[in-house]
Specification:
Layout lengths: L1 H15 L15 H8 L2 H24 L1 H9 L6
Helix pairs in contact: 1-3, 3-4
């Protein structure tokens, strides 16, 4: 999951900066219709990456603090006691 989430971010970063040489790109890479189609996935891919990376972070936090502590902090952020 971590590789996929980071892969989305790296892919769009590399593509956005124009770091893919034309000879390595797919056949219709220069076609504006294909470029628009490719970029139409930016927001959903970044959202998927954000949720995936957040879930991994929450799992690591829960491992250190215990599942009840972790989830109660997110679901009930005001002071208890």
């Amino acid at each position: 999951m971590l590789v996929t989430d980071l892969g989305f971010v790296v892919y769009f970063s590399v593509t956005g900066l124009g770091l893919i040489p034309p000879e390595w790109a797919f056949a219709d890479y220069g076609n504006p219709l294909m470029a628009d189609w490719n970029w139409s996935f930016l927001w959903i891919d970044l959202l998927a990456s954000a949720t995936g990376l957040t879930s991994l972070w929450l799992l690591r936090t829960a491992a250190r603090a215990g599942p009840v502590s972790c989830w109660s902090r997110w679901c009930c952020p005001w002071p208890r006691g």
